[in-house]
Specification:
The chain has 21 helices and eight strands. The protein is α+β, with helices and mostly antiparallel strands. It folds into two domains: 259 residues, 2-methylcitrate dehydratase PrpD (Orthogonal Bundle); 117 residues, 2-methylcitrate dehydratase PrpD (60s Ribosomal Protein L30, Chain: A), CATH 3.30.1330.120. The longest helix has 22 residues.
């Protein structure tokens, strides 16, 4: 007889769905510090650059072709393309595009990439509704707060079960942001969150495939539709998040309810957002950083006998692909990341192209990487020693990679990243105009100028 190992449900959980809905519907516009508001603009800029930059990727083209078979009415812009779609489909495709390069923002406490679902839904809705840039920024801050607070409740147990937490919380952030943008009241917002709670998306098994970026896109569409349905009177359980058979207790045995309400309206999770200098899984970044530092010290690939890499077990669990066949798979290969860092001194999207991933010298160097698990090393760190053919060895310990909260990317670095992503599609001058429009978004009367600039 099988043993029942189910964790007892918490029947006395606080009214999380209602608490978050109250916050979404009633928190004042710009009810946060200038630093939080600036971070919202940084988040939007980074998301926009990633979405435009990946617009011509085959994954985006395939998704767009599938959506166009539905013959949607044009309501919102597909970023980086000339196409316009209905707002739900635009949210889907822009969400896919923004995550395709794995170059988007990261809330490090939960490994959520929050802008993908939330910003993708909001831009499509705001463009269609004629909303102001300030309304979008307000909704972005609030939507990301909901998504990441829910992530705080269930991480890491939920993630360890195999859920891609960006998708499985993103639909709630998108629903919250869209509810805010639509001006829904507390009751309607509760319903929007309730409807979204039945639509979690994303399995970690899909990492390294086109379906991984589907997760934020599908979450964006689900959240947007949930808010639109709630506005029309569609109903859901008012306890859809916290009930014994609600979303959170179903998908996680760890539910730290206080994470939803602690300093709600005072501490904003977008303040803890980070931005990637390398176009791959975040846990590879310390290893790339270390190898790039070794390159800067004069180490050349032909001098290398082997690269000894010591990392936390999560690094190899997520990015242990030794022989990636293409660029998407290489984004989950710490071996390729080390090779790219030492050969190129960087790991942007070009270094994850199929051609580079299969280049003979790159393949040869990544096969010299010997990775060992060391649980004493933090998930966000890497200890790299390069052993040279002449017997010398050099060691670099990276405790916090470039792009982390401790070593954040500057505004200028974010703008440079944006140019690298978008110049090939838009040209230097147009990219500069789009950057300026993103930085001044909170003062814009509407989104039409920005979306026009994002069209090649």
């Amino acid at each position: 007889m099988a043993l029942n190992t189910e964790v007892a449900a918490d029947t006395n959980a606080p009214a999380i769905t209602r608490i978050l809905a109250q916050f979404v519907a009633t928190h004042p516009s710009r009810g946060w510090s200038d630093a939080v508001d600036h971070e919202a603009h940084r988040t939007f800029l980074n998301w926009l650059g990633c979405a435009v930059g990946a617009a011509r990727h085959e994954a985006v083209g395939a998704a767009l072709s599938a959506v166009q078979m539905l013959q949607p009415a044009p309501q919102a812009q597909v970023l980086g393309r000339s196409d316009r779609l209905d707002m739900a489909s635009a949210a889907l495709v822009n969400g896919i595009s923004s995550h395709t390069f794995d170059f988007d923002d990261t809330h490090l406490k939960t490994i959520i990439h929050p802008a993908g679902p939330v910003a993708s839904a909001l831009l499509a809705l705001a463009e269609c509704q004629g909303a102001s840039g300030r309304a979008l920024i307000d909704a972005l801050v609030i939507g990301i707060d909901v998504s990441c607070r829910v992530g705080n409740i269930v991480y890491p147990e939920h993630y360890d079960r195999g859920w891609h937490i960006t998708g499985s919380t993103g639909m709630l952030g998108a629903a919250a942001g869209c509810a805010r943008l639509l001006g829904l009241d507390v009751g309607q917002t509760t319903m929007a969150l309730g409807i979204a709670a039945s639509q979690p998306v994303g399995l970690r098994e899909q990492f390294g495939t086109m379906t991984k970026p589907l997760h934020p896109g599908a979450a964006a569409r689900a959240g947007l539709m949930s808010a639109l349905m709630a506005r029309q009177g569609y109903t859901a359980s008012p306890r859809a998040l916290e009930a014994p058979r609600g979303l959170l207790q179903v998908v996680s045995s760890k539910c730290d309810w206080a994470q939803a309400s602690d300093e709600l309206g005072q501490r904003f999770e977008i303040s803890f957002n980070t931005y990637k200098p390398f176009a791959c899984g975040i846990v590879i970044h310390p290893s790339i950083d270390a190898c790039a530092q070794l390159r800067a010290q004069g180490i050349k690939p032909d001098q290398v006998e082997r690269i000894e890499l010591r990392v936390h077990s999560l690094v190899l669990e997520l990015t242990g692909k030794k022989e990636p066949a293409d660029g998407l798979a290489a984004k989950f290969s710490v071996y390729h990341g080390c090779a790219a860092g030492l050969i190129f001194g960087q790991a942007g999207e070009d270094e994850f192209s199929d051609a580079i991933v299969n280049r003979d010298d790159v393949v040869a160097l990544r096969r010299k990487v010997v990775a060992t698990v060391d649980e004493s090393i933090d998930e966000a760190a890497a200890d790299v020693t390069v052993v040279l053919r002449d017997g010398r060895s050099l060691r670099v310990l990276v405790e916090h990679a470039i792009g982390s909260l401790q070593r954040p990317m500057s505004d200028a670095a974010l703008s440079a990243k944006f140019h690298a992503l978008t110049d090939p599609l838009l040209g230097v001058a147009r990219s500069a105009e789009l950057i300026a429009a993103a930085w001044s978004l909170g003062d814009s009367a509407d989104l039409h100028g920005l979306t026009a600039l994002a069209r090649p």
